[in-house]
Amino acid sequence: MYPKMKPALARAWRDLQTVQFGVTPAHAVVLGPVDTATGALLDLIDGTRGMELLRLQGRAMGLPDGRVDDMVRRLASAGLLDDSTVGGPRAQAVRARPEAMARLGPDLGSLSLVHPEPGGDLLGVAARRGIRVQVRGSGRVGGVIASVLAGAGVGRVEVLDGGRAQPADVAPGGLGPASVGRLRAEAARTVVREAAPGRAPRTAESQGPEPGLALVVVAPRDGLQSWAPDPQTAEDWVATGTPHLYAGVLEGTGLVGPLVLPGATACAGCMERDRVDRDPAWPRMLVQWRSIHHRRDSAACDLGLSTAVAGLAAAHALSFLDGELPASTATRWEASLPGLHWRPTPVRSHPECPCGASGHDEAAEAESAARSWPEPAVAVGSERRGGP
After folding, report:
1. N or C, which end of the chain is more exposed by having fewer CB within 10 Å?
2. Predicted pLDDT of residue 364
């Protein structure tokens, strides 16, 4: 074992015997009591020394036998410790690609907080490299989402879209000016390839059958298709149990969500049935709007808002791919110009929808709401997670 303090959390002494790791409450940890000599040991736990050398240096500093092992155990239990040797072949495959490691350094830092066990960050990146995601749309929202997912280490990002790129599709982080006139799908593949931090390593697993879709991100250039998604488009995803996340901008309003977990949370069919129940004129208006938007050449899709929507949607997608349910699960988040106040709206299953989600919403919504708030401080022995 070559223990190493996680670099993601800044360290500061609260007083002579108490150390706080981290500034923000969501991931901060308070450790105490820690005497001055033991505190000096923290600087030596940098991944370059094995346990035997740390014990020898601890004795040289005047620490009693067992103190080094005790401190390492406390740091590990508080989620503050990494180990530069753990993780097995999958983690080693990531370590063996220094250029990709340099690009993904900030992502590894975030993953080390989400997966606090030693090596959790590398295993998280390794898991992303084996994931296949599909993005439906390559405009100001979809193109940026695809680029972010690829840049964050998702190994296979497919972008589906038709036609040729227009000047209005160009966005920082998405399709560039050189894409104008090219087939959108082809231009999007170039963006994804350039954003990716190196190709995924070829292994026996990667040479096997193509992985199934872990997630579909629905971010069409026509924001109406995210605001009022067509149930027929989502039928295959619901039938195959494929999770899908809606995102887009319509008339100066951005939306992220819902993340649909087929059979567990409300689908597009549920949303349409619910809206018809509340507004009998909705089907008539929807037919007209869909016809108008099909011919519309421009849309109110502010670049700042579209970038914010794309970033939030990509973050929610990554959270889900990393094994956590984001706040968009069974919930739609909306923000409108000019105030841009994000508002959550629960999306409920409909008893007449054949998707089978009816009866599952209460638990899903409660979990989604809980995850949208910071964790309270939790005492764990002498360590406190959550900060002051």
Report:
1. C
2. 47
SS3 content of the chain, % helix, strand, coil (to 5): 40, 20, 40
CATH annotation of 130-371: 3.40.50.720
Gap between the Cα atoms of 12 and 3, Å rounded: 20
Looking at the chain, the domain(s) classified CATH 3.90.930 span 3-84
**Inter-CA distances, 207 with 93, 130, 211, 283, Å:** 15, 11, 10, 47
**Alpha carbon of 299 to those of 28, 90, 136, 223: distances in Å?**
43, 45, 18, 9
Say if residues 214 and 132 touch (Cβ distance below 8 Å).
Answer: yes
DSSP three-state, residue 199: coil
CATH number, domain 3-84, options 3.30.450, 3.40.50, 1.10.600, 3.90.930: 3.90.930
358 compared with 351, residue with greater pLDDT? 351
Cα separation, 128 vs 152, in Å, equals 8
Residues carrying CATH 3.40.50.720, the chain: 130-371
Helix/strand/coil for 184: helix
State residue 82's pLDDT score: 85
CA–CA–CA angle 221, 288, 255 (5° rounding)? 35
Q: What is the pLDDT of residues 114-133, one digit of tens each?
A: 888 888 888 888 899 999 99
Total-model pTM? 0.86
For residue 169, what is the enclosing H or E element? none
